[in-house]
Structure prediction request, 126 residues.
Amino acid sequence: MKFIVALTPLLIFLTSCAPPGMGGEGESGSPIIAALPFVLIFGLFYLLILRPQQKQSRQKENMMKNIKRGDKVMTAGGIHGKVVNAEEDVLTVEIAKGVNVQIARANISALINQDKAETKQKGGKQ
Prediction:
């Protein structure tokens, strides 16, 4: 995001320094050159914002599909628990011994056991 903020003045400068039309007073130059800054801005916007957001969305969707019995999860409200039963859209999560709650699958924000495994793998490689 900081990269886009840093490039904005440069793009404004480049568009304001475009050479005037070669012909008379009424000509404005090639329409391709006039559209170039907009294409560049859209390209940067796509690469720096839209693409990573789509990747993150796919990862979260994949994580939600793969929740199974025995997984430790964290809800959107910050409650940690263990999945006791996994149905299509509803999960039964044990948050304390003998205390089970039913939670919509969409309200799971993270898999805890998966996060710890990734941390151990990163720590072992360094």
Summary: Strands lie at 72-75, 80-86, 90-96, 99-104, 108-111. The longest strand covers residues 80-86. The helical segments are 2-16, 31-65, 112-125.
